[in-house]
C-alpha cells in the first residue's frame, strides 16, 4: 500500500509540474527546442515512474529506520540551506560545506570530507567559470579568484604595449 501512496503522490506532482511547464512563456528569441522541453521531460519521467509504482507495487517494501529517515531529512535540510546561502555567501563556501557534510554522511572521514568539499567547490567553480563561461553567485573569495585569473591573463596577453591612460588632448 505504501508504494501506491508514493506513486499517487508522484503522479500528482508530475501533473502539477507539467501544468507549470505549460505556463512557461516562450520568447521569439528562443532556440528550436524552447524552454518547455526539459520540464516536460522531467514531468514525463516522474509520471511514468509513479505510474509504475501504482501498477506494480512492491509486495513487501522495506522502510528505513527512524534514524535513517532523520538522516535523510537532515541531508535535505542541508540542501535547502545551501540554496538559501548561495546568494549571501557566494558559491565556494556553501558548496564546500554542503559537499563536505554530504560526503561525511556517506562514509568519508571528517578530514577527508573537508578536503573533498574544498576540492569539489574549487573544481566546479573553475569548470563553470573558466571552461563553460557560466555565471555563479560571487562574493569575496570568488572575486579574489577571478581577479587572480584575470591578472594571470593580463600577464600572458599578446599586446605588449599598454593602452594610454588618458585620451590625447585636442588643439
Structural overview:
The protein has 6 helices and no strands. It has 171 residues and is mainly alpha-helical. It has 2 domains: 46 residues; 92 residues, no CATH class. The termini are far apart.
Spatial separation of the terminal alpha carbons: 89 Å
Order of helices and strands: HHHHHH
**What is the gyration radius calculated from CA atoms?**
24 Å
Major beta-sheet overview: none
**Count of distinct structural domains:** 2
Topology of this protein?
Elements (H helix, E strand, L loop, with lengths): L1 H21 L14 H19 L10 H24 L2 H14 L4 H22 L8 H16 L16
Helix pairs in contact: 1-2, 3-4, 4-5
Which key features would you list for this structure?
171 residues, mainly alpha, 2 domains, flat, transmembrane helix, transmembrane
Amino acid at each position: 500500500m505504501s508504494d501506491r501512496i508514493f506513486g499517487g503522490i508522484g503522479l500528482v506532482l508530475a501533473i502539477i509540474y507539467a501544468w507549470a511547464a505549460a505556463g512557461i512563456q516562450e520568447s521569439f528569441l528562443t532556440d528550436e527546442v524552447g524552454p518547455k522541453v526539459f520540464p516536460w521531460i522531467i514531468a514525463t519521467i516522474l509520471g511514468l515512474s509513479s505510474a509504475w509504482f501504482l501498477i506494480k507495487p512492491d509486495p513487501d517494501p522495506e522502510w528505513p529506520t527512524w534514524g535513517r529517515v532523520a538522516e535523510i531529512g537532515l541531508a535535505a535540510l542541508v540542501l535547502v540551506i545551501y540554496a538559501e546561502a548561495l546568494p549571501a555567501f557566494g558559491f565556494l563556501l556553501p558548496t564546500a560545506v554542503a559537499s563536505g557534510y554530504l560526503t561525511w554522511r556517506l562514509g568519508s572521514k571528517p578530514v577527508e570530507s573537508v578536503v573533498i568539499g574544498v576540492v569539489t567547490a574549487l573544481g566546479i567553480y573553475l569548470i563553470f567559470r573558466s571552461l563553460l563561461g557560466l555565471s555563479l553567485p560571487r562574493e569575496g573569495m570568488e572575486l579574489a579568484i577571478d581577479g587572480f585569473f584575470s591578472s594571470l591573463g593580463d600577464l600572458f596577453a599578446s599586446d605588449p604595449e599598454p593602452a594610454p591612460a588618458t585620451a590625447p588632448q585636442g588643439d
